[in-house]
Amino acid sequence: MSWIRIFSGNTPFGLDHRRDLWKSEYSGSPAPLFLPPGSRTAPVVMNTEPQETSQTSTTISFTINGEKQTVASSPDRPLLEVLREDLGLTGTKYGCGETQCGACSVLLDQRRVFSCRTPVSQADGREIVTIEGLSREDALHPVQQAFLDEDAYQCGYCTPGMILTTVALLAENPRPDDAQIVAALNGNICRCCSYPNILRAVQRAAGGLPKGD
Predict the structure, then answer these.
(1) What is the per-residue pLDDT for 32?
(2) SS (HEC) of the chain
(3) Is the Cβ–Cβ distance between 155 and 189 less than 8 Å?
(4) In this structure, is the dihedral angle defined by the CA atoms of residues 20, 25, 29 and 30, taken in order, positive or negative?
């Protein structure tokens, strides 16, 4: 699947509904890059080696999903590892470990970062938002709802990162055009090639699609 096919309209649709997307765990791995027309797909290098971290533990405090949190950890330990293993926030996924797939995306002071390569020390005194922190009570965040309405997922592994990247984009640019959407999501991979639906989901979240379309 390429962005040339997306903009030409020659795209497959008809994905199955999976209404429990935000309550389930998924498994998967990276695949072709989310690239605009004319770009070449670069290979994704999987990092299977454990990252070396300092053995010295320090206290790090931050606000996560609206709640104050303090952890004792090596300062150069990946934020992703702390989120998943220490705090149980498993919606943030490990994909490539090289900042190349976007599965580990979270918001740090409202900006998207790749948590697989962000030392937890960089979060000290700052605000983190993960996929678990977007919805309010029984209501999905508008971006989550748009992805659900447009079936912008299949296996769902990349979806949390896609959604958080979209949230960051719309906070900075509430009415992006298609080229700006592609540029913002260029660091996010969808192995299932749901790119046409992802594009429509972002358009819908930005108010670019009429209701009922």
Answers:
(1) 36
(2) CCHHHHHHCCCCCCCCCCCCHHHCCCCCCCCCCCCCCCCCCCCCCCCCCCCCCCCCCEEEEEEECCEEEEEEECCCCEHHHHHHHHCCCCCCCCCCCCCCCCCCEEEECCEEEECCCCEHHHHCCCEEECHHHCCECCECCHHHHHHHHCCCCCCCCCHHHHHHHHHHHHHHCCCCCHHHHHHHCCCCCCCCCCHHHHHHHHHHHCCCCCCCC
(3) no
(4) positive
- What pLDDT, on a 0 to 100 scale, did the predictor assign at position 41? 40
Mean pLDDT split into 10-residue runs, the chain, 213 residues? 40 35 36 40 44 76 97 97 97 96 97 97 98 93 96 96 98 96 96 95 88 60
Which amino acid makes up residue 124?
Answer: D
Residue found by looking up tokens 């919805």 in the block:
135
Q: How far does the chain reach from its first CA to its final CA, in angstroms?
A: 23
Distance CA 93, CA 123 (A): 18
Residue with tokens 């993960």: 130
Task: Fill in the amino acid letter for 14.
Answer: G
Query: What is the rounded CA–CA span in Å between residue 2 and residue 19?
Result: 27
Q: What is the pLDDT of residue 137?
A: 85
User: What is the token pair recorded at 200?
Assistant: 């429509």
Q: What is the spatial distance between Cα 46 and Cα 74, in angstroms, rounded to a whole number?
A: 24
Q: How far apart are CA 131 and CA 105, in angstroms?
A: 9
Query: The tokens of 23 are what?
Result: 């309550």
Residues 56 and 74: beta-carbon distance below 8 Å: yes
